[in-house]
TrEMBL record, chain B:
Domain of life: Bacteria
Signal peptide: none
Record-linked PROSITE patterns: 2FE2S_FER_2
Name of the protein described by the UniProt record: (2Fe-2S)-binding protein
Higher taxonomy: Bacteria, Pseudomonadati, Pseudomonadota, Alphaproteobacteria, Acetobacterales
Amino acid sequence: MPEGSGIGASVTRKEDQRFLTGRGKYTDDIDVAGQTHAVFVRSPHAHAKILGVDTTAALAMPGVVGILTGKELAADKLGGLICGWMIHSKDGSEMKAPAHPALALDEVRYVGDHVAIVIAETKAQARDAAEAVYVDYGILPSVVNVAAAAKPGAPAVHASIPDNTSYRWEIGDEAATKAAFAKAAHVIELDLINNRLIPNAMEPRAALGLYEPGTESFTLYTTSQNPHVARLVLSAFIGIAPEHKLRVVAPDVGGGFGSKIFIYAEETVCLWASKKVNRPVKWVADRSESFLADAHGRDHVTHVALATDENGIFLGLRVKTLAAMGAYLSTFASSVPTYLYGTLLAGQYATPAIYCEVDAIFTNTAPVDAYRGAGRPEATYVLERIVEVAARELKIDPAELRRRNFIRTFPYQTPVALEYDIGDYQASLDQALELADYKGFPARKAEAAKRGMLRGIGLSTYIEACGLAPSKLVGSLGAGVGLFESAQVRFNPTGNVQVFTGCHSHGQGHETTYAQIINSRLGVPIENVEVIHGDTAQVQFGLGTYGSRSGSVGGSAIYKAADKIIAKGKKIAAYRFGAKHEDVQFENGVFSVPNTNKQMTISEVAFAAYVPHDYPLDELEPGLDENAFYDPLNFTYPAGAHVCEVEIDPETGVAKVVNWVAVDDFGTLINPLIVHGQIHGGVAQGIGQAMIENCVYDEDSGQLLTGSFMDYGMPRADDMPDFKVGFTSTPCTHNPLG
Amino acid sequence: MSSSISLTVNGKSVTAAVEPPTLLVHFIREHLDLTGTHVGCDTSQCGACVVHVDGKSVKSCTMLAIQADGTEITTIEGVANGALHPMQAAFKEHHGLQCGFCTPGMVMAALDLVRRHPSPDEATVREGLDGNLCRCTGYHNIVAAVLAGAQAMRG
């Protein structure tokens, strides 16, 4: 364990003090003068025509400030919600992305769809008035199951798209895969459902929109993972206001897991409505609304086939997936079952031929978008399940079958677009098997049997593509934004540092880990570093936090800005030393010239830069404040092996996870304490999905049956085991942090 | 028709007029501006709103503010003066929080658990935290924190 509080040290978190004492500042904790409260009128039907909306009675109720519907929104010519990644079908046609008005205009397409916003002095008054809004619905046929929606004759979610298909995408070499199957000794096939999940960040989504007529500007406080992208979309596509007249603040955010990346109807409408009623408008979701209207995750139906030779060496993989999109394409929905899914189907294996087809299908449900891993867990599930089944059919130990097929030479170009820079999959598998006492399993199984219990062991390896990149590549694949990250490292005259990052922390501990990077690079104690994020008025343009990008992309931007600080500091110090800047060295926060007694601390250099009395003003600007934008050269490829042991009581059917081992290779760990915590959370999510979590819509009515914590299987403390965590390390070859 | 209530919150006397339907959690957050107590659900399932009423753990969304008349309430803001309480310190030391939203309720529930079980084992902690949801930590570090916090409180 490295000494001190730099990269690699398990320092406790700076942000914990405020969270532990109740001084966090989440969106619902923010109140502004003149604030009103909003409640949304939502569709009770999965699919219906809006024949009329009568607000007369509701408008007359106590405290009501205003009621706005899709008609007013359309009259103001605001754009609809957009999907930011264009996918092309295999025939070359563009994906079908039907209009998605923030308030439904003439049709609702899922239970919870937005019909009107009711604004009142108190939330209770808004709720009462919302119940008095009369909406005349003409019920239409609906479909909630993705497989059913893909069948000919299924009810159309959008009349303009009779086959419910947004796109039919493919990746890989179909002919080569067909040839691989033709020469295979064994073909193993499997049908899989990756069930729909509800994100359930503990903090429900919230928005506070505020119009300031004096400056004709807007402020939005919102539970967002990426405030700049929210501002960009609200400005450029929805047309609320130009970017310089629109400030988006994402303060403390109580978990995101992907569901708070997206630009939603509610924040759009609250912002717009604040100008319409000339009062700040605040909306905080009830948990039941979160179930209905947060973007959901997963929801795939897949057929997979694996071709092997007589020794179990993989020859080809074929995958056909139906991916539910929900009623509309959410902000990043189209990228999830395509470039974040199909490209990961090589996993850790040197399968020479892979072909994957994905049909993206509309259903009368909440939109489906990125959730905890976004496409990559779906790919791992498909691949590891078929490998496990193959091991059984071929009677080869599952660990041995994986070992035989691991990629061993790097860089490795997969048949599905990605180039892995480095990895050592054998190392993490070996350590995982050791920690799990894989060899001792038969004895434990026999012991369990004596107690009348069934016991099983399973393992899984995985690879992720994290830190989405490079901008040029993702642009060529249809992404609507760049995928760099920004950082500003600002020394104050007294030598403390403010780091402005375009990433956003909603539990990841950036205030600590970014300070650790500054400590390692610039020698400044972490208590003298403040990390600022989440406010477009303070921070330079950035792209937020999702897809495991904060360390590799955001951290690298900070590293790059720190390098600029060092370069300028050397010039300032060189002037004071009367030396050439090439001769100045920087180490542990001190500039010096070797073999002399010339030394200046970085604090002294910062002071000199801000009090430039003895300073080369003809050559250098005052100040010590540097900006960097880092665009990655490639994805990073964290990988690992997990082992799970389960005991089942055949009398009761109760299944208990009795042992979980996770061995992961994340390259350099900035803060192992925090990394451990993130692994625990991810494992809990996986166990949750495997054992108890499931989002269920009634197939006849389209009602959400798992619409509260009473019905949805949320993992609790006694559903989870202790986790054993280990690490291996093959540092990333293309970013400065490894 | 509002009713007048008098109670003690974090050691201070409070008298306020509240509407009868006002839940204790809303009274704490909106009337007293103590926003550390959070609302995470509408079914009393998540535990983000746990406070102590007369020393016992209560989900403050299950109780009307007028029912708290005459009681002594402690919220997360009242757990420690200055330095962290040993239980809060244990959460920090063991990384028992990430986004921090469930944390106040988790700490309040943990303190009541330790009041009832001064030397809890792991199973008791897991069962005792069953009413508090966390989506970030997988509970592993929360359980470790509560065990360590209990030990620290025993001295």
